[in-house]
Amino acid sequence: MSWVEAENTGKEPLPLDLLSSFHLGHISPFAADEAPHRLLIHRFRSSWSAEGRLQSATVEALDLEPSWSRGGVSSVRFGQVGSMPVRGWFPLVAVEDQAAEVLWGASLAWSGFWQLELYRKDDALQLAGGG
Question: What is the per-residue pLDDT across 97-108, written as a single tens digit (0 to 9) for each?
Fold first, then answer.
């Protein structure tokens, strides 16, 4: 469990569009390289009367491979804006290292807007999210 607080100590209003509640970095530490063809992303789709449909895809299928120059950043973001927190996607994600048989996951217990993000910076896959 984690929580994040933000405090504006200035005199002017400061808009806050998104505040990440957590960040898991350097997935997978069990690989000496970027773990090609061994990281699987699990998410659950939601639609009317079809809640909880598992969608699994490799990092490569989601275009989260490192760039040839190792200078670019690629990302996959999903979430919900509004009062229906499970419209389109459930607020959870898991990354499975199939070779090491390890799973990293995150689930948001939040009834408002939220965002989860998987991104590749250099050789490491990162997972962040919040409301």
Answer: 999 999 999 998
